[in-house]
Design brief:
Order of helices and strands: EEEHHHEHEHHEHEEEHEEEHHEEHEEEH
Largest sheet: 7 strands, mixed
Helix content: 25-40%
Number of strands: 17
Oligomer: single chain
Number of domains: 2
Strand content: 15-25%
CATH superfamily of the largest domain: Type I PLP-dependent aspartate aminotransferase-like (Major domain)
Length: about 400
């Protein structure tokens, strides 16, 4: 008999009923250190008092009124995001996949609006992940996720990541833009080099095409800056955000320059729930915390400490771990042993982590972690590795 919930997830046999900062508490009363953050979503941890206050106050006033009308908190969130970024305009949606769908549409519409409707193809990278819709699956090109869902949506080409020469060679008369993650999260925490990201920007400028960034996982402080592309000193033309944007409340956004968004006029795109009042209360509360002076100094300090301690663990257990990977608090360990077994053993030891491609275990703690929680996580990893039977 089919279960009441469609069986599309391989769920662990644990149920969480509440959270406190960097910790989750199960229905059995056990406390876990959460270095998964709902896959990089709960950026400010669980039950953050400022987020609770903002969401509760809005919930007592108005939940939803439709984008047919002015929404003041949405306007405020958009103004704050544009002020803190390269962008001139924002479209709010509900998820990362929707954000990337919107980004793809903007890139295609730009060329149609500027006299080149033949330019509709985007060049993406092998090992990428852009969402679970038909278009975003095709954009990533991962056969594992595409298989069984019919012909992939057309309009996407693929080249190896961090290979600027391959990207240049792939550009043709139908190319509308380049779609890239600054760090490939799902793909295994492969970091785009500064030279690569700068080269992509220069290549787009040279060819008159758009640079589309997927910062669904890397954005909102995850790498130690508000957006990961800032480390390379560049700016995209279009960018998708989600995950940490709402601190746990489902929301996504597409950010774009005025030039790139030229074709997005009334009726060209929309969302019933996107930018609703509860979501915008959450986004503004997250921005209150992240844009406060010193926030990213603390994030980078903890990221540096975690990286150092993980490198020590790798050196101590070379038969278990191959290397430390990632950037900021989007970090992890490439395993020698199966990463699925490692995730399970770490969970049994009280540490929540997330698997990724290339046999990597992702460590995605909330951005508010403290030194004692870094020490606690590393102690659990070291203990599990030390007890591993090879």
């Amino acid at each position: 008999m089919i279960p009441a919930i469609l069986a599309t997830y391989a769920r662990a046999n644990v149920t969480f009923e509440r959270g406190e900062g960097a910790y989750l508490i199960s229905t059995e009363g056990r406390k876990y250190l959460d270095f998964g953050s709902g896959v990089a979503v709960t950026a400010l941890g669980h039950a953050h008092p400022h987020l609770i206050k903002a969401l509760t106050e809005q919930a007592q006033k108005l939940w939803h009124c439709s984008n047919l009308y002015q929404i003041a908190p949405q306007q405020r969130a958009a103004e704050r995001l544009t002020a803190a970024s390269f962008a001139d305009t924002v479209f709010f949606c509900n998820s990362g996949a929707e954000a990337m769908e919107g980004a793809i549409k903007i890139a295609r519409k730009y060329h149609a609006e500027t006299g080149h409707p033949e330019k509709y193809r985007l060049i993406a990278c092998t090992g990428s992940f852009h969402g679970r819709t038909l278009a975003t699956l095709a954009a990533a090109g991962n056969e594992k996720y595409i298989a069984g869902f019919g012909p992939p949506a057309p309009g996407f080409d693929h080249v190896p990541y961090n290979d600027l020469a391959a990207m240049r060679a792939a550009i043709g008369p139908e190319t509308a833009g380049i779609l890239v993650e600054p760090v490939q999260g799902e793909g295994g925490l492969t970091v785009g080099t500064v030279e690569y990201l700068r080269g992509l920007r220069a290549l787009c400028d040279e060819k008159g095409i758009l640079l589309v960034m997927d910062e669904v996982q890397t954005g909102m402080g995850r790498t130690g800056k508000l957006f990961a592309h800032e480390w390379a000193g560049i700016a995209p033309d279009v960018m998708g955000l989600a995950k940490g944007l709402g601190g746990g409340f489902p929301t996504g956004a597409v950010l774009a320059t005025e030039r790139a968004a030229v074709g997005m006029t009334p009726g060209t795109h929309g969302s019933t729930f996107g930018g609703n009042l509860l979501a915008m209360a959450s986004v503004n509360a997250v921005l209150d915390v992240m844009l406060a002076p010193g926030f990213f100094d603390q994030v980078n300090q903890m990221a540096g400490l975690l990286r150092q301690r993980l490198e020590e663990v790798v050196a101590s257990h070379p038969k278990i771990f191959a290397e430390q990977r990632g950037k900021g608090l989007l970090t992890g360990l490439r395993c020698v042993v199966p990463n699925t077994e490692m995730v399970e053993k770490l969970r049994n030891g009280g540490l929540i982590t997330v698997g990724a491609g290339e046999n990597v275990v992702r460590l995605l703690p909330p951005l508010i972690i403290e030194e004692r929680q870094v020490a606690e996580a590393v102690q659990i990893i070291d203990k599990v590795a030390g007890q591993w039977t090879l």
